[in-house]
Amino acid sequence: MKMKTLVSAIALTGATLIALPSLAADTIKVGVLHSLSGTMAISESTLKDTVLMLIKEQNAKGGLLGKKLVPVVVDPASNWPLFAEKARELISKDHVSVIFGCWTSVSRKSVLPVLEELNGLMFYPVQFEGEESSKNIFYTGAAPNQQAIPAVNYLINDLGVKRFVLAGTDYVYPRTTNKILEAYLKSKGIPAKDIMVNYTPFGQSDWQSIVSQIKQFGSQGVKTAVISTINGDANVPFYKELANQGISSEDIPVVAFSVGEQELSGIDTKPLVGHLAAWNYFESVDTPENEKFIKEWKAYKHDPNAVTNDPMEATYIGFNMWVDAVKKAGTTNVDAVEKAMIGQKFPNLTGGMAVMGKNHYLSKPVLIGEIQDDGQFETVWQTDKTVPGDAWSNYLPSSKNIIADWTSPINCGHYNTVTKQCSGGN
Amino acid sequence: MRHLLAFFCCLFGLLAPLAQGAESDTTANQPPANIAPLVLDLTQAKLNKLLPILKQLEAVSDESMVPLFHAMMNGDLYFIKANRQLVVATEESGQRLYKGLYSHAMMPSISEDDLKKIRVNNRLRGYLRNAIARVHLTAASPDVREAAVRELLAHLDKDTITTLERLYPNEPNKKVKETMGLALAMNTASQTNLPDSTRIAAIDRLSTSLENDVRNTLTTLTYQDNPAIKSAAQTALKHIAQRVERFNFLNQLFFGLSLGSVLLLASIGLAITFGVMGVINMAHGEMIMLGAYTTYVVQLMMPNYIDYSIWVAIPAAFLVSGSVGVLIERLVIRHLHGRPLETLLATFGISLILQQLVRTIFSPLNRQVSSPSWMSGSWEINPVFSLTLNRLYILAFSLLVFLVLVMVLKKTSLGLNVRAVSQNRNMAKAMGVRTAWVDAMTFGLGSGIAGIAGVALSQLTNVGPNLGQDYIINSFMVVVFGGVGNLLGTLVAAFSLGIATKFLEPITGAVLSAILVLVFIILFIQKRPKGLFPQKGRAAE
Question: Is the entire prediction scored with pTM above 0.90?
Answer without folding.
Answer: no
